[in-house]
Amino acid sequence: MDTIDALMTRRSIRAWTADPVPGEQRKTILEAAMNAPSAADARPWHFVTMDDPDIIGRFTTLGGTEMLQHATLLVLVCGEVAREIYPGFWPQDCSCAAQNMQLAAHDLGIGCVWIAVYPLEERVEFCRRVLGVPGEITPFALLAMGVPAESPEPEYRYDPVRLHHNGW
Length: 168
What we know:
This protein is of the alpha+beta class. It has a single domain (3-150), classed as NADH Oxidase, CATH 3.40.109.10. It has 5 helices and 4 strands. The protein has helices at residues 3-9, 23-34, 53-58, 90-107, 121-131; strands at 45-50, 73-80, 111-116, 137-146. The protein has a 4-stranded antiparallel beta sheet, sandwiched between helices. Helix 2 packs antiparallel against helix 4. The N and C termini lie far apart (35 Å). The model has no long low-confidence stretch (mean pLDDT 97).
């Protein structure tokens, strides 16, 4: 799949089969995450992967996350402020890594959805508690993945009303 096609056809997937995400595909998705751009190449990210159904099931209590019970892989993207070179950029860096993961998953035929964690303090603390994330690391986003059990049509979202040229 070429890059533009991946960008234009990626959709959030919230229904998965029981088939696991193969190990080589997991590695490719995480390689894509770690190849994301970051401010001053600081790479302030950490990733917690989960495939234990009991652990995954705990995340269905966050509110609006009931569909996670069918995911076969969760990845928690976390940021480490101490690794920053330019303070305050870690959320952007982690966003780039998460977006790379979504696009890599899509290219590999794996369905993925992004669940917001940061800056929702109750979700941040939940992730710390369930996964033992240390205090100096901030849970940022949860990506749920699996072999898709749905195939939503691509949406064309270009809106010229939102385009401004040489000023507002």
